[in-house]
Structures are given as C-alpha cells and as structure tokens.
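REQUEST FORM: STRUCTURE PREDICTION
Request ID: SP-0412
Submitted by: Lab K.M.
Chain count: 1
Length (residues): 58
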Amino acid sequence: MNISKTILVTRNLQAMKAFYINQIGFPLVSETNESFMMQIGTNQLTYRLTDDVDTRYI
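STATUS: Completed
RESULT:
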C-alpha cells in the first residue's frame, strides 16, 4: 500500500505551519485560512484547523 496524501487536524494551524515549513523546510503546496498542504518527497501532508478538544494521535 502506498499512502500519497494524508490529512491531519490541529488546533494551532500557525504553529504547525511554522514548524514544518519554516523550521524543517518542507515545500508549501497550498494554503487557506483553515488548512495548508506541504510536499514531503512524493507525498502530500495537509493540516486542517479544528476546534475539537482532543487532537492527539494515538
């Protein structure tokens, strides 16, 4: 199985963007007020804004 697109949620979109784009340097593909997508090799990772209390991934 090859996963080429993944969507995760976060309560702090700007902090995630700052970390992945500014600190690590992944290329930004697109962004809106509620999400951003980055390229990681041949895969795309999207973070979407949420107001859910628990956004931990277990």
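NOTES: The mean pLDDT is 90.
Reviewed by: T.R.
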